[in-house]
Design brief:
The protein is built from 4 helices and 3 strands; from the N terminus they run αββαβαα. With 185 residues, it is an alpha+beta fold.
Length: 185
């Protein structure tokens, strides 16, 4: 292989440009859809508005699994971004449309400290529309994780008739719900 690559760049056949490249495109006959199921148990301190994820279980199906370690990383990344979106990310604007946050210090970017422990699992349903049965993996946990976190927060307040609590579910918003419902000591 080394000799072939060297020859391709250093002594190409007449009338050919130097180089060794190949391009191939695959146009699937239909889309490949991953899916998952997500469950969240959350505790909320009504006096402070701080929400703590007690347990989060994620089951994903990305079809044929090629590299389980990469898949696990994609699932963890998607779930962490879902957690960030649901529990604190917001870009606030003033009346003229200017961003009010000065930097990412004003934007919730969860680290390993804030991120919950993920219990992950998988099932395999190969896609009939892909040569090896693979599907996407990174977006599914994000798409399913955001409403899962939001539903956990809303379910925690449902028995109090709090109504729908808008995202992001940061401590200030949840504290305001507790204040509105007269839950503070």
């Amino acid at each position: 292989m080394k000799e072939i690559a060297w020859a391709a760049y250093n002594s190409p056949p007449p009338n050919l440009e130097p180089g060794l490249e190949a391009v191939n495109y695959y146009e699937p006959p239909n889309m490949t859809y991953p899916f998952g199921a997500y469950f969240c148990i959350m505790d909320i301190d009504v006096d402070t508005g701080v929400a703590k994820t007690r347990r989060f279980y994620a089951l994903d199906d990305c079809g044929t699994r090629i590299n389980p370690m990469i898949i696990e990383g994609q699932v963890h990344g998607g779930l962490t971004e879902a957690f960030a979106c649901a529990m604190g990310q917001e870009i606030r604007y003033d009346a003229t449309g200017n961003v009010m946050g000065a930097s990412f210090m004003d934007f919730f970017l969860p680290t390993a400290v804030e991120t919950p422990h993920w219990e992950t699992d998988f099932t395999v349903t190969p896609s009939p529309h892909h040569p090896i049965g693979a599907k996407g993996v990174g977006e599914s946990p994000h798409v399913g994780g955001v409403p899962c976190f939001s539903n956990a927060v809303n379910d925690a307040y449902a028995f109090l008739d709090a109504g729908h609590i808008q995202m992001p579910h940061d401590a200030w918003r949840l504290w305001k719900v507790g204040e509105r419902l007269g839950l503070h000591r």
